[in-house]
Design goal:
This protein has 327 residues and is of the alpha/beta class. It has eleven helices and twelve strands. It has two domains: 119 residues, NAD(P)-binding Rossmann-like Domain (Rossmann fold), CATH 3.40.50.720; 190 residues, 3-Layer(aba) Sandwich (Rossmann fold). The strands form two sheets. A seven-stranded parallel sheet has the order 8-7-6-9-10-11-12, sandwiched between helices. α1 runs parallel beside α11 and α4 crosses α6. The longest helix has 20 residues.
């Protein structure tokens, strides 16, 4: 089997890519560049292609298909950047990956703690040698009621880890997990909005979840609520969130992902004028943390993502059960 990798990062991914391909006897090649109509022909003659979170639209999928590519693997859990239905219409199989849930769970809890203790404001003040106390009083996470919306692998891990802090935990999911019930009480969304001091999102970026957090749901939340999003930016209506921040309804927002971030993150843009008003506005609030979609980024997760992308492509070629295939 022959695999071609686009946007492969030599400083962290390459060693895992080379190792797994060598183990499995796979012929491979790669480029640092993201796939485009200008370079997609690099994959000509390869059975499978692996990408990261860059848009894969019909025209580029057509060219891949013409070049003989049969399988497409994204080195990410999410696959909303791929027109999966169109790929399937071409007979092309699509796979995603799983990786250590601890990575995002750890990061989520870090953001909760930073929000409770107003760490962005404290550190910004420390940079200008303002070590005063006024305005920096935090809250103890152990005194909070925390709502976890979505109890898949990551949500379950967040619940389990939070249980050690002694806080009251509420959870919501359309499918309830028995392991979560050891630590948290399942309830409805209305109760979570009404009773929780901290609300953390862990649901997938599906169409039915688009803007599930909006003006109406903010109105149901506690004044000063802490909102955490390390899942998908499209879950929150950004304009409504900004209004909720301005009114004081949101006490702190910790966001590892925001709407319209495609083409922004994982690139060095330090000298660019960024056409992203939402990010600029959110970053201006002293009670907002905006990190560049980094929750996943640990050594263990990078290895999982690369190796599982390759394993998913191999499973496509071999047929039979494929735990990574997007149906």
């Amino acid at each position: 089997m022959k695999i071609f990798a686009f946007a492969l990062r030599e400083f962290d991914e390459e060693k895992y890519f080379i190792n797994i391909c060598s183990q499995l006897g796979i012929e491979y090649a790669y480029t640092n560049a993201y796939p485009s109509m200008d370079n997609i022909d690099l994959a000509k003659g390869y059975d499978g292609v692996t990408i990261i979170t860059n848009p894969m639209y019909p025209a580029i999928l057509d060219r891949m298909h013409e070049n003989g590519v049969k399988y497409l693997a994204t080195r990410s859990v999410g696959y909303d950047h791929i027109d999966v239905n169109y790929a399937h219409s071409l007979g092309m199989k699509v796979t995603n990956v799983s990786y250590s849930p601890e990575s995002v769970a750890n990061y989520t809890i870090m953001m909760m703690l930073m929000a409770c203790r107003k760490m962005t404001y404290i550190m910004d003040k420390a940079k200008v040698q303002d070590f005063s106390l006024k305005g920096k009083t935090g809250k103890e996470i152990s005194d909070c009621t925390i709502g976890i919306i979505g109890t898949g692998r990551i949500g379950r891990t967040v619940v389990r880890h939070l249980s050690g802090f002694g806080c009251r935990l509420l959870a919501y999911d359309i499918v309830e997990s028995e392991s979560v019930k050891q630590y948290a009480q399942y309830t409805d969304l209305e109760t979570i909005y009404r009773e929780c001091d901290i609300i953390s999102l862990h649901v997938p970026g599906l169409e039915e979840n688009y803007h599930m957090i909006n003006k109406d749901t903010f109105a149901k939340m506690k004044d000063g609520v802490i909102l955490i999003n390390a899942a998908r930016g499209m879950l929150i209506n950004t304009n409504d969130m900004i209004e909720a921040l301005e009114s004081g309804k949101i006490g702190y927002a910790a966001l590892d992902t925001i709407e319209n971030e495609a083409g922004l993150y994982y690139l060095n843009r330090e000298t660019d004028i960024l056409a992203n008003h939402d990010r600029a506005i959110l970053s201006a609030f002293p009670n907002v943390l905006v990190s560049p979609h980094m929750a996943f980024y640990t050594e263990r997760s990078v290895q999982d993502m690369v190796e599982n992308a390759v394993r998913g492509l191999v499973a496509c070629e071999q047929g039979g059960e494929n735990p990574f295939e997007v149906r």
